[in-house]
Amino acid sequence: MTRVANIQSQITADGDATPTRPSALSSYIQTTKPGITKLVTITAMVGLGMALAQQWATNNHSWSLGAFILLALGLIVGTALSASGANALNQWVERERDARMHRTASRPLPTGALPPHRVLLASLLMSLAGLALLWATCGLVAMTVSAACILIYVLVYTPLKTTTWTATFVGAIPGALPPLIGWAAAYRETGFQSILDPGAASLFLLMFVWQLPHFFAIAWMYKDDYARGGFAILPVIDRTGVRTSVVIAICTILLIPATIAPVVAMPQILGVASIFAAAITGLAFAVLVGRLLRTRTREHARAVFFASIIPLPILLVVMVLDAFVHTIL
């Protein structure tokens, strides 16, 4: 019996209680994982902003206000649609595994709030619409990078994480690509060469490494749930937490050069402020990871997870402001 059916069966004898069923619209929105979609869209905009700042600093800009607005709107809507489609596809593929896990059992597909074929259709339409809009407004390269995000996430990472814990590193690739969508949009005239720029590579590296301790901490917190779902993530295999804590520590060490890489790659627009933000956030995070390495408790894994959420937005905001200051001075 589905969760919705259970709710319906719990109506009181006097008939006063009315079960609340989420609307179809809210259920479709839930399949898109709005939080992840928002992060993907924001990081794509960071890539655009950093690329435009570099163009301005090197006197290599020719954007009118109208062209910039069209580019930015196309990037925001196109990226949000394609990311939403990818997330919904992921939920469609994993609907049976989600039903076994406490943290995902309330999603629209496990509960029966939405039929699978409609979610599949909606996810494909969102993905295609997002890619088409990116192609029309941001260029072929931006669209190709977004398509790579979808394909790697759905066709490679999603099935791979049931067979090997190293799938986490594969899953970090689509999560690290969104800044390159924005970067490619700004440099659309240079073709695929644009995403090989050191600035673009540094943003990819930052996003790639940041995701690793973040996800391993989540996996530690919900390892029993992931085991029920049949996922071969590291904490499921490593029941003592020794290997997981070591991997998190190694990733944290790698995060330090990764946060400084954009400053090295884009010295025209980034400087002391970005280095300071990277050092402070990195040091604070390292302290919590060091504690986890010693204790290996769920409580301290939870602290690492929440702490991992904070440094990235702080660093991105400081970088954007730093770039803005450098371009107007």
Question: In terms of topology, how is this protein built?
Answer:
Layout: H1 3-8, H2 24-31, H3 34-57, H4 65-93, H5 95-100, H6 108-111, H7 116-138, H8 140-160, H9 167-176, H10 178-186, H11 198-221, H12 223-229, H13 234-237, H14 242-265, H15 272-295, H16 298-309, H17 311-328
Helix pairs in contact: 2-4, 3-4, 3-10, 3-17, 4-7, 4-8, 7-8, 8-9, 8-10, 9-11, 10-11, 11-14, 11-16, 14-15, 15-16, 15-17
Would you give an account of this structure?
The chain is mainly alpha-helical. The protein is built from 17 helices and no strands. α8 (140-160) runs antiparallel to α9.
Task: Write a concise synopsis of the structure shown.
The protein is an all-alpha fold and 329 residues long. Helices cover 77% and strands 0% of the residues. The model is unreliable at 1-18 (pLDDT under 50).
